[in-house]
C-alpha cells in the first residue's frame, strides 16, 4: 500500500535549494491533507485555512470520542455486530478514498469528488 500511494519523487535525493513540483505527503497523511484542501472559500471573517483546520480537527475529535457518541437506549451498534462491522468498513473505505482523491491533480472535478467523499465520511 505505501508504494501505491507514494511517488517516485519522494525517493530521490533531496535538493535543499529547490522543491520538486507535485510532491504529495505520505499516504497516511493524505486524507487529513485533503481535508485541509477541501475548503476553498471564506465565510465572513473566517479564512479558508482556518475552516480547513476546523474540519481536520473535527475529524480527529470524532475518532477520539466515537466510543461515547453512541448513547442510544434502543439497541446501540455495539450489540449489532453486522451493522458495526459494515459501519467500520464504510468509514475506512471513505477515509481511504478521501486520501486517494487528494492524490489526483487539482481540477473542478477534484473539488466535487473531494466534497462528496467528505460528506459521506462525516455522515457516518
Q: Can you describe this structure?
A:
This protein has 124 residues and is mainly alpha-helical. The chain has one domain. The protein contains five helices and no strands. Helix 2 crosses helix 4. The chain is globular and about 60 Å long. The mean pLDDT is 74.
Structure in a nutshell:
This protein is mainly alpha-helical.
Give short descriptive properties of this protein.
5 helices, single chain, 0% strand, mainly alpha, 60% helix, 124 residues, globular
Question: Which secondary structure elements does this structure contain, and how are they paired or packed?
Answer:
Elements: H1 2-5, H2 30-38, H3 48-69, H4 81-103, H5 108-123
- The helix tally amounts to 5
Q: Could you give a short account of the major beta sheet?
A: none
Terminal-residue CA separation: 24 Å
The coarse overall form would be globular
Share of helix among residues? Answer: 55-70%
| Domain module tally | 1
Percent of sequence in beta strands: under 5%
Q: Low-confidence stretches at least 5 residues in length (pLDDT < 50)?
A: none
User: Over the alpha carbons, how many angstroms does the gyration radius reach?
Assistant: 17 Å
| Average of per-residue pLDDT values | 74
What structural class do you assign from the helix and strand content?
mainly alpha
Kindly state the number of beta strands.
0
What is the helix/strand order? HHHHH
Amino acid at each position: 500500500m505505501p508504494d501505491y500511494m507514494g511517488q517516485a519523487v519522494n525517493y530521490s535525493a533531496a535538493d535543499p535549494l529547490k522543491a520538486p513540483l507535485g510532491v504529495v505527503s505520505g499516504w497516511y497523511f493524505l486524507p487529513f491533507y485533503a481535508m485541509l484542501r477541501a475548503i476553498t472559500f471564506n465565510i465572513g471573517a473566517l479564512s479558508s485555512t482556518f475552516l480547513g483546520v476546523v474540519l481536520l480537527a473535527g475529524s480527529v475529535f470524532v475518532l477520539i470520542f466515537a466510543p461515547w457518541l453512541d448513547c442510544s437506549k434502543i439497541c446501540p451498534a455495539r450489540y449489532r455486530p453486522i451493522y458495526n462491522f459494515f459501519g467500520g468498513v464504510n468509514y475506512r473505505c471513505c477515509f481511504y478514498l478521501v486520501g486517494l482523491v487528494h492524490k489526483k491533480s487539482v481540477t473542478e472535478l477534484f473539488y466535487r469528488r473531494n466534497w462528496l467523499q467528505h460528506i459521506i465520511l462525516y455522515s457516518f
